[in-house]
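Q: A small favour: would you put together sequence and structure tokens for a protein?
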Amino acid sequence: MKKILIFFVVFSVLITAYSCKNREKESEDGKAVSLTEAVDSLDKDTSYAFGMAFASELKDLELAFDYTEFTQGFKDSLAKDSETRLSEETAMQKVGNAYSVALQARTETLKKKEAEFLEQNGKKDAIAITASGLQYEVVKEGDGAKPLADSTVKVNYEGKLMDGTIFDSSYARGEPIEFPLNGVIKGWTEGLQLMSVGSTYIFYIPSNLAYGESGSGRNIPPYSPLTFKVELLEVK
């Protein structure tokens, strides 16, 4: 809910700023450009871009809009001499209610998918599961030193979502990464301590040991179990 309210505030500020700027402009005959004229003067791609920007914040919620009413509400809110059918307070309440219901439905769906993924993956013979719920598979066992919780390590890795989408990879960048184990997600802190230098493991990290209900940016949705192939190169 907080995210959508912030978006509406920012969007309103942008519209207001744009409107004020264009009110100050003058047409070729010296007459001031009205708000409606300014909006009408947007080229097709810019108008389309505004639609994309709005939709990008709502896409994951799969809201089924009545686009006729959506467009009318948008036009009425922008038009200088038009009254909106709903008060601003009523409109925000309706938006908030719809958003909350859609968000709850999406949350339940994501939780169910995560639970099913981890349950099925955990049944595989090669998978070991720790007390925290971290799942891992030994691809190659090394014979070097093991890191501690506050060690700095050097690794190569590839991270995937549960649908197989790669969201990050040091292999793709062509360069290993170094980091302190006490500065990363819990699944990494725990998992890397199981490894010896020279090992390659695959970790299946539940969302509560990763980015939880918030996710991380646009690449990692909320309640995402993460799969990491990790090669431990060095303990600093």
